[in-house]
Every structure is written in C-alpha cells, then in structure tokens.
Amino acid sequence: MSRLPAASLVEFVAQAFLSLGVPEREARTVAGLMVEADLLGYATHGVFRLRQYAARLRDGGCNAAATPHVLRETAATALVDGDNGLGHLSMTMACELAMAKARETGIGWIGVRGSNHAGPAALYVRPQAAAGMIGICAAVGSANHVAPYGGTDLLLGTNPIAMATPGGADPFVLDMATTVAAVGKIKTLAQRGEAMPEGWMVGRDGKPLTDPTRLDEGFLLPIGGGKGYGLSMAIGLLAGVLNGAAFGSDVVDFTADTTSATNTGQFVAAIDIAAFGDPALFMAGATRAFAEMRASPPLPGHDPVRVPGDGREAARAGRLEAGITLHPALRADLDRLAKELDIAPLPVTEPA
User: Fold this and answer.
1) What is the pLDDT of residues 124-178, one digit of tens each?
2) Number of H-type helices and E-type strands within the chain
3) Are residues 328 and 275 in the same domain?
4) Which of 17, 59, 244, 245 has its CA 20 to 30 A from that of 320?
5) Within a domain: residue 148?
6) What strands, in cross-sheet order, belong to the sheet with 77-81?
7) Is 194 a member of any domain?
8) Closest by alpha carbon to 8, among 319, 317, 313, 316?
9) Which domain holds residue 1?
10) CA dihedral 142, 145, 150, 151 (to 10 degrees)
C-alpha cells in the first residue's frame, strides 16, 4: 500500500483530464469531487474510476467540452441536460440548483439527462445536510447487471439512492445500491485478484458466482429479492423515464462501450426543513432517534449499533491529514495511465 496527500491526487487527476481536452475549471472540479469520494471512504467510486472516464473521453463517448444547461424550469423543479459531459458537472449543477430552489419554495427537485457516471450519490446529498436541509439523490446505473426479479435479461443497473439529513458531528448519510453489492466493489476485487463472497451474484445457471472477473457471465442480486427489484424500477422511472434518459434496454454499458453517449439519468432533491417547522425541533428529534439506535444492545458477536454516516467525518479528517491509501493494483494502473496520457506520474511515497 502507498499513501498520498489528497492534493497530489487532485493534481494528478486534473492533469489527466486536461490532457484529454477537459477545460481547466471543469477538470479541477471533477478531480476534487473524485478525491473527495476517496476521502469519504467511497474508494470504489473515486480515483479508481479515472481509467473508465479517460477511456470515454479519449474515444468520444463523453464530451470533454460539455456545457450542462437547464432545459426547462419551474419555481421548484428543473430539468438539466448534461451535454454528455462528465457526470460530476451536471450533478453539481443540479445539487446547487435544488438547494437554491428549496430556499425559495421549500423544495427543489432537479432531473438530469444526458449525463454520465458521477461518482457516489453521497456527494450530491451531503451539501444539503451541511446547509441544514434534507438531500435525496438517485441514478440509473451506468450498465445493466441485474435481471428483473425472476427473469434472465439484463435490464437493470445497481440504481443507487442516497439521502442525508443534518445530524450533529456526523450527518445522517445513507448511500446504497439497490443490489447486494455495487459493481465498483466487484471491479475492485477483480483488480486485486480477490474473490467475491457468495450471495453477491449468480450465474445464468442460478448457482453462486464468486469470480469477479466473470462479472459479465451472471447477474447481480437485488437487495431483498423482489423488493430491491421494485425499488430499482422506481428509481429508473424517476431518474430515467421522467427525465427522458436511458432506462432498461436503452442503457449503454459505459465501460464496454466507450464511443456511445450513455444519456445517463439522475435526480437531486433538496428539502428545506424550515418549510415544515422549526429546524431546531427537527435536530432535537433526529438526535434523540440516533441516540436510541446507538444505545440498542448489540446481538452477541456484533459490533455496537451505528447510524448511517457515523464516524465518516473523523475518517475523512484522518485521510486528509495522513493521506489517501492506494492499493498496489490501483497505484500500478494509475502509473500505466500516466504513461498512456503522457502526464507526470504520481509522486513516489513511502509505504503506508
């Protein structure tokens, strides 16, 4: 393992994007968000994704000079077209617009079309929590790895959803795929040469699949069986169909196909707590609920009960101070990518 300062990673990612024609402001915005994902512990959706983004920019599947813009708008809603650019750009715009509308009307709901993979959904709900609001975000997955419950056709993605609220030192942040495991975790295991646990995937014969390099030979399993399938469908309707974005068989595998526009669909919402009552009362109620959850005696052999988001701020601060740890396989891939793009490699560091 090696450990690198966050600033070094941001600069490296920014230089990679600049070499591929992304304007400087946009390159640094996306680089900062990707490294922020690593700082927060979402390692499968941070710098790990750089090669995939670079391939799409290089091959024309993603527009390096994109200008996300509003297609239509009401007092509380808007539809943003990402211009087939890096998804972080359209989602940042959507998040900021949702918060602005929530301040005026109590709620802001921004749909996104013409986008691309944008990292972890948590990035687009944490700002709302920091501003004393509630944030909600969901997306149609960037590839179909899931069959409809009881079926065999790959028609659904991991379709993640996230929600955040204020919550004291650590905001409540739920960020989850609608599958037992996210594709990023499986790709990470494949890169490291490690096996998957049983229960993440099955092959077309219905038997457990544990080799992550055989991802394309089977299906990811939805959480809760038919319930996870239903939730994934609901997200597809809200983030995809409602926005005129891809869903079902229209979804383009953004890794396998680096030349076609994905038309990825997402949405970001912000709710102003003050529109419903005294924000202090909400905080008091939420704090009491969090305390009750944590106080529940754990089952034998289980760790103490946690609330989604617990400890993440301290962990982020620790990584910011000590550096972000890179697995040797990821470090080697980033070094290869630097040579391919003819940019300066990451600095040599002491082992973590």
Assistant:
1) 999 999 999 999 999 999 999 999 998 889 999 999 999 999 987 899 999 999 9
2) 10, 12
3) no
4) 17
5) yes
6) 69-73, 77-81, 107-115, 264-272, 133-139, 161-165, 172-176
7) no
8) 319
9) 1-59+311-352
10) 90
* Burial class of 96 by CB neighbour count within 10 A (0 to 12, 13 to 18, 19+): middle
Q: Give the position of tokens 């290869």.
A: 336
Place of tokens 């968000």: 33
* pTM of full prediction above 0.70: yes
How many other C-beta atoms lie within 10 A of the C-beta of residue 303?
Answer: 7
On whether both 41 and 144 belong to a single domain, the answer is: no
Q: Where are the alpha helices (DSSP H) in 60-196?
A: 87-105, 126-130, 183-192
- d(CA 339, CA 143) in angstroms, rounded, equals 28
CA-to-CA distance for 276 and 175, rounded, in angstroms? 24
Q: Three-state SS for 156?
A: strand
The reply to whether 202 falls in a domain is no
Strands 133-139 and 208-209: unpaired
H helices of the chain, in order, are 6-19, 24-39, 50-59, 87-105, 126-130, 183-192, 226-235, 279-295, 312-322, 328-341
Q: Which of 242, 34, 270 is nearest to 140 (CA)?
A: 242
